[in-house]
Write a structure and sequence with these properties.
The complex is a heterodimer of chains A (158) and B (513).
Chain A: H1 4-17, H2 25-36, H3 43-51, H4 55-64, E1 76-81, H5 84-87, H6 91-102, E2 108-109, E3 115-120, E4 132-134, E5 137-139, H7 144-157
Parallel strand pairs in A: 1-3
Antiparallel strand pairs in A: 1-4, 2-3, 4-5
Helix pairs in contact in A: 1-2, 1-3, 3-4
Chain B: E1 2-6, H1 10-14, H2 17-27, E2 33-36, E3 50-54, E4 57-61, H3 69-74, E5 86-89, H4 94-97, H5 115-120, H6 125-130, H7 135-145, H8 157-165, E6 173-178, H9 187-194, H10 196-210, E7 214-219, H11 224-239, E8 255-260, H12 270-277, E9 301-305, H13 306-310, H14 312-318, H15 320-324, E10 327-328, E11 331-332, E12 334-341, E13 347-352, H16 357-364, E14 374-379, E15 386-388, H17 398-403, E16 412-417, H18 422-436, H19 442-459, H20 464-481, H21 485-489, H22 491-500
Parallel strand pairs in B: 1-2, 6-7, 6-9, 7-8, 12-16
Antiparallel strand pairs in B: 1-3, 3-4, 4-5, 10-11, 12-13, 14-15, 14-16
Helix pairs in contact in B: 7-8, 7-10, 9-10, 9-11, 18-19, 18-22, 19-20
Classes of the chains: A alpha+beta (158), B alpha/beta (513).
Chain lengths: 158, 513
């Protein structure tokens, strides 16, 4: 994990840019995660101080939302939809295949730090279930074979 | 110059539309063509779809893969000539032609982020009328239209607006609930990606109607393409005097901003959404006070779903009566229905209320994708009841669904074939509630965990009868004791699975209630 001191100026910049925005905590957290890939636990104190909140309040918000993470993600984040429409198109088989192929469970990162695996509850791509995203790209009708191809393409592109 | 249309809609992209567009562009460098990235028509089994503008209308080809492009071009794609993938004039396909596209009139037709294109296709006509009207008259049009909240609760939009209009305050807000988290729904996403200006126009009109000068679109993080399209459209609207101070020289002000959610399903509940917008945990608030009186930052706030707000421009353009003339009973206008899951023709079909579920599943949907019999259909998202074959003749109407202890909700329909295990689906409904409960009230927070355990015991034959009674009792507590629909409606899928498909729980069919 990176040293927070090197990240601190980025966090302070983001805090400064959102100073006058009403309801700014989520935009700040998004800003930090978009830039650093996660929200360093050490940043909580700076965020709390800037927003006149307690550290518990800030931590509470970070932990409430599934999307925010407090550990660095792998190079690519794969999200597999677990919702009903995808289940109707055999997403459970895809989910098992992905876990087996990557050798990790949900909320984990592969040992080579290439892939983080996360569950997601609906990508709005229900017309072409089962669906996954790799980073910001949505993929539909994903069979285990297609999953392997997408994975290979990711590895090839790095 | 020949104009081609290839969608920028997420689902089209998820099937390779971007690669198709790039291949076309690479292979037509020497030709005088323009590739417009439109929204999707919603006929998703035909995506990626290419449309070419000809004197005979827009001729469509699909589904197209990058490797088909060379043969399409050789056979005269640019002139709309024959090819095995040619579907003819897209607007003559019965799936499209038989719809009543009011809210989705432009989706798939225009360039979503081109303001001139929007205006050329009747865009901003509603706002033009609204700018000449008194707030009470705008609200009256919406009330007369019979429009009810399309997010699922079906509360009359006009009444909500009227409450905010009559709440005195220095500052009021319009909040668009774009946290479309229900599985099987994607109509909000399609509007935001395919015609974002219609949502912006609807929110601006709402602002004029109730006296609000600031709007927020609370968008789920799972919709990155919608975020891009909305922000492009908002920037264009600001540049051209459709947002900001002195809108079109009227002296009226309306500001609009997109705010991103962070993966919490509960934030689709309006009060939880407001907490989230304020930068807090998405804990559900007690009601009353209603958000219309004490909403965002404690101010009177209209919270409406994307489709509700996107239906406002056509109502203000053509009048409340025009919209009200569609539909049945107390369900007026149209509903964009979304067919998903195990279905041959998945997609979005905007039709007037009143069609039966069977017509939708078989005439539009073409039956299951697997070719096996359709066994169960969940309507209205993860909190909606499962329906069995015997209920497929129910008309798509809020009251008709309520009469069979089901909900129409946001119009999302997920189809399961006969390989589905309904005890698994009931367990999943409880598990989802465990995962997504905000934790404020006990029936939802604890009830859902106990629900998973009780279903496990029933399925594994531990005191089956006693535990079935216990599950029903638990559901009763959740329905009547929960603070919001999360805990209050999780029993819908659970009990409907138990009542209609007891055999999947290892119970006698006779146990059917």
């Amino acid at each position: 994990m990176q040293d927070y001191q090197s990240q601190k100026p980025i966090v302070l910049d983001i805090l400064d840019a959102h100073r006058t925005m009403p309801g700014n905590l989520l935009p700040i957290l998004h800003g930090i995660q978009d830039t650093l890939g996660y929200i360093p636990p050490a940043a909580v104190e700076d965020i709390a101080k800037a927003l006149y909140l307690s550290k518990a309040e800030v931590h509470g918000v970070i932990s409430f939302y599934h999307y925010f993470r407090t550990t660095p993600p792998g190079k690519h984040t794969i999200r597999i939809c677990r919702a009903e429409s995808c289940q109707a198109m055999n997403s459970k088989a895809l989910e098992n295949h992905a876990k087996q192929t990557l050798g990790v469970d949900f909320h984990e990162t592969t040992s080579d730090e290439h892939f983080s695996l996360e569950p997601v509850y609906c990508l709005g791509n229900c017309a072409c279930s089962p669906s996954i995203t790799i980073d910001d790209e949505v993929h539909g009708r994903v069979t285990p074979e297609k999953f392997d191809q997408l994975l290979a393409a990711c590895k090839g592109a790095k | 110059m020949t104009r081609l249309f290839i969608s920028r809609d997420s689902t089209a992209l998820s099937l390779g539309a971007e690669q198709v567009a790039q291949t076309i562009q690479a292979q037509t460098k020497d030709k005088h063509i323009e590739v417009v990235r439109n929204g999707s028509r919603g006929l998703y089994w035909l995506e990626p779809l290419i449309e070419v503008e000809t004197s005979q209308g827009r001729i469509a080809y699909g589904p197209v893969q990058p490797e088909d492009v060379a043969s399409l071009l050789e056979n005269g794609l640019l002139e709309g000539k024959q090819h095995p993938l040619c579907l003819g004039n897209i607007e003559e396909l019965p799936y499209f032609k038989n719809q009543n596209r009011l809210t989705f009139a432009r989706v798939g037709l225009t360039d979503p982020v081109n303001l001139d294109d929007y205006i050329a296709h009747d865009g901003y006509q509603g706002l033009k009328n609204a700018l000449t009207m008194q707030p009470t008259d705008i609200v009256k049009h919406v009330t007369d239209s019979g429009l009810r909240g399309r997010g699922g609760a079906a509360f009359p939009t006009g009444i909500k607006w009227n409450t905010v209009l009559n709440a005195p305050a220095e500052q009021k807000y319009i909040v668009c609930n774009a946290d479309e988290g229900d599985s099987g729904t994607f109509s909000d996403r399609m509007i935001m990606e395919g015609d974002p200006f219609v949502l912006i126009e609807g929110m601006t009109i709402a602002g004029l109607a109730v006296g609000a000068t600031q709007g927020y679109i609370y968008l789920r993080i799972e919709y990155p393409h919608a975020k891009v399209a909305l922000n492009q459209a908002i920037a264009a609207a600001y540049q051209n005097g459709y947002l900001g101070e002195n809108i079109q020289g009227s002296g009226k002000t309306f500001h609009l901003e997109v705010r991103m959610g962070a993966g919490a399903y509960i934030c689709g509940e309006e009060t939880s959404l407001l907490e989230s917008l304020e930068g807090k945990r998405g804990l559900v608030r007690f009601k009353p006070p209603l958000p219309a009186i004490v909403g965002l930052f404690g101010k009177p706030t209209v919270v409406n779903n994307v489709i509700s707000l996107a239906s406002v421009p056509v109502i203000l353009d053509k009048g409340g009566e025009y919209y009200r003339d569609y539909g049945m009973g107390r369900s007026r206008g149209t509903l964009p229905l979304q067919l998903a899951g195990n279905i041959k023709h998945p997609g979005l079909f905007e039709v007037a209320f009143g069609m039966t579920l069977r017509e939708l599943l078989y005439d539009y949907g073409g039956g299951s994708a697997s070719g096996r019999p359709i066994r169960a259909v969940q309507v209205g998202g993860p909190l909606g009841a499962y329906l069995h074959e015997g209920q497929f003749d129910t008309p798509l109407d809020y009251e008709a669904f309520a009469a069979i202890s089901a909900v129409l909700g946001h119009g999302g329909i997920v189809v399961h074939d006969d390989t589905v295990n309904m005890a698994d689906m009931a367990r999943y409904a409880m598990e989802f509630c465990v995962e997504e409960s905000c934790g404020k009230c006990t029936p939802c927070r604890i009830g859902s965990t106990r629900g998973v355990e009780v279903i496990d015991r029933i399925v594994s034959d531990v005191q089956k009868d006693k535990n079935t009674v216990l599950l029903r009792d638990l559901c009763d507590t959740m329905v009547f004791g929960s603070l919001c629909a999360m805990g209050g409606m999780t029993p819908y899928p659970v009990l409907s699975a138990l009542n209609h498909f007891p055999e999947d729980f290892g119970l006698q069919k006779a146990a059917k209630v």
